[in-house]
Specification:
Layout: H1 8-25, H2 31-38, H3 42-51, H4 77-90, H5 98-112, H6 119-127, H7 131-139, H8 141-148, E1 164-170, E2 175-176, E3 183-185, E4 188-194, E5 200-206, H9 212-223, H10 227-233, E6 248-251, H11 260-268, E7 272-275, H12 285-298, H13 309-312, H14 317-320, H15 325-340, H16 351-361, H17 375-382, E8 385-388, E9 390-391, E10 394-397, E11 400-402, E12 416-421, E13 424-432, E14 435-440, H18 450-459, H19 468-510
Parallel strand pairs: 1-6, 6-7
Antiparallel strand pairs: 1-4, 2-3, 4-5, 8-12, 9-10, 10-11, 12-13, 13-14
Helix pairs in contact: 1-2, 4-5, 5-6, 7-8
């Protein structure tokens, strides 16, 4: 065997060598006998004998590894300098690759008349550079410091609700309209994560970019029971009992997290706010990892865009899209319960078990909403708000008119504060005279969420026909009639212009003013069927 792979055979050889070395050292055998037993030359024997150390492991008697030592360089100094220069100059920026550096090495060697090294040789030189320096060259100093620098700031938590993290992400899947089944885009989701138990206390899914509305909706959901929401979504079988009073919210520096209305609402309800230091992504690591976990499940859905173009390949995301907004919401809620009951590596147990075990051991610490002193006021504080005018039909919001008998005295009042619950848009709250008046839209209309209203109003055009396919065919037929008529008209006009141009050109050649029209007797009828008269040469 030439290889030194630590196999049983190699261990037996090393053990045999050690026995021969010990016998030779004790003068039990002669040098010639030792050489015969090991099959070595005199010089080879003494090289192996010098390496052998009985105080160390038996491996000191192993056969020497053949070949060049690790790190040995056999190319010329000039080529080494070219490789070093190419790496320093070309390995820079996010788009750089080892192949790009290698191409530069080949070009430089060609200019100097030198033989180019192999790609693997250049790759090995690049790998000799410390990983932090390589990452810095490709992604910048800040990213390298975040990836390889020290990450202090671990905080030991003792209870749920002690610290939650909130963040948004755009979901890697394209949704479709519920009627036309045409793609409408990718949704956004906002998470509220309890760091102690890793429970997703609340979330908010929307088709619009993150805003104060997303933050308020997710936080309100995290604080109160979700039974009504699950019922409206048609997933009553899902168990989602986690809710309660949050003590501190940790967020990044997005504008919606720093809005004065949000900060004031937190202060009014005893919730501390904390923002992530700029450039310190690891401070929000728990919710960042949650986002990665949840998005990995999305990649199995039809219409997934995956995390990047390379992963997506030639997959037709829009063509394969199949889920509507409501269908995605129901699917997503089920995925959350699956996540809650799955083993969490960081906890050593599932989030659900971590939550249950804590409150089983601390029965005096209720997590019910009775900790919120005024639930109605809490909801109002965190509900998104807008300003409207109270008209004769009431308050118009998202295409609906909300009315109440109590608003009759305030008709014409402008710039009033209007609060609304994005999950249940049947009612709104109008602030007049220092108090909130509840108003609702038509009784016969069903309860709808803000996203459902927006999709029904803006997501697709009004469809007044029953048989859309047949009506579309008739519409195309009518367009074809008009198109053919226009083409025929243009054709006839072109023909007339050609005849007119021909007549003018003939007149110009033969003689201007000549009349080449056929003479017809005034008393005869204009009939092309008359018999021709033979021309009399004598006349």
């Amino acid at each position: 065997m030439d290889g030194r792979d630590g196999s049983i055979s190699e261990n037996l050889i090393a053990n045999n060598r050690a026995n021969v070395f010990e016998s030779y050292r004790a003068n039990e055998i002669t040098l010639q006998q030792a050489l015969g037993l090991l099959g070595l030359s005199r010089s080879g024997f003494f090289r192996a004998y010098r390496r052998y150390n009985p105080d160390h492991s038996i491996s000191s008697a192993s056969r020497a590894v053949r070949g060049r030592k690790a790190g040995t360089k056999i190319i010329s100094t000039q080529v080494e300098e070219i490789i070093s220069s190419a790496v320093q100059k070309e390995y820079s920026g996010k788009s750089t690759t080892c192949a790009h550096v290698y191409r530069e090495v080949v070009f430089l060697c060609s200019r100097e008349g030198l033989e180019s090294p192999s790609y693997d040789t250049v790759l090995r030189r690049i790998k000799l550079i410390p990983p932090k320096e390589l990452h810095k060259a490709k992604h910048g100093s800040a990213d390298a410091a975040d990836k390889f620098g020290l990450k202090p700031g671990y905080i030991k938590l003792n209870t749920p609700f002690e610290r939650v993290q909130m963040d948004h992400t755009r979901v890697d899947v394209i949704l479709v309209d519920e009627i036309t089944r045409k793609p409408i885009g990718r949704p956004w989701v906002t998470f509220v994560l309890d760091v102690y138990s890793r429970i997703i206390l609340g979330f908010y899914i929307s088709m619009h970019a993150p805003s104060a509305l997303s933050v308020a909706s997710a936080l309100t959901m995290a604080t109160f029971p979700k039974d009504k929401y699950l019922e409206c979504m048609g997933v009553s079988s899902v168990q989602y009992p986690y809710h309660g009073q949050i003590k501190l919210i940790h967020m990044d520096n997005a504008a919606e997290f720093r809005s004065p209305a949000f900060v004031s609402a937190c202060a009014a309800n005893g919730i501390s706010v904390e923002w992530r230091p700029i450039g310190k992504k690891h401070y929000g690591g728990h919710v960042e990892r949650l986002v990665g976990t949840m998005m990995s499940t999305v990649h199995f859905l039809p219409g997934s865009t995956y995390s990047n173009v390379k992963q997506r390949g030639d997959y037709d995301s829009e063509g394969k899209a199949a889920l509507t907004f409501d269908e995605f919401q129901r699917w997503f809620v089920i995925q959350i319960e699956l996540y809650h009951n799955k083993h969490h590596k960081g906890l050593g147990k599932s989030p659900s078990r971590a939550w249950t075990e804590y409150f089983a051991a601390n029965p005096d610490q209720s997590y019910k909403t009775d900790e919120v002193k005024d639930a109605a006021q809490f909801r109002l504080d965190f509900m998104p708000e807008t300003r409207r005018t109270i008209g004769r039909k009431g308050v118009q919001l998202e295409g609906n008119f909300y009315s109440s008998p109590n608003l009759i005295y305030w008709v014409g009042t402008k710039n009033v504060v209007v609060k609304y619950d994005p999950y249940f848009m049947k009612k709104i709250w109008v602030k007049v005279g220092g108090e909130y008046i509840c108003a609702s839209y038509e009784i016969e209309r069903k309860e709808m969420s803000l996203e459902q209203i927006r999709q029904s109003r803006n997501g697709r055009p009004t469809l007044p026909w029953d048989d859309i396919g047949r009506m579309d065919g008739l519409n195309q037929e009518s367009k074809l009639i008009v198109t053919k008529a226009i083409d025929e008209t243009k054709r006839e006009a072109k023909k007339r212009n050609e005849i007119s141009g021909y007549s003018q050109s003939v007149a110009a050649i033969i003689g201007k003013g000549e009349d080449f029209s056929r003479e017809v007797d005034a008393n005869s009828s204009d009939d092309d069927s008359y018999r021709p008269v033979v021309y009399n040469m004598e006349e």
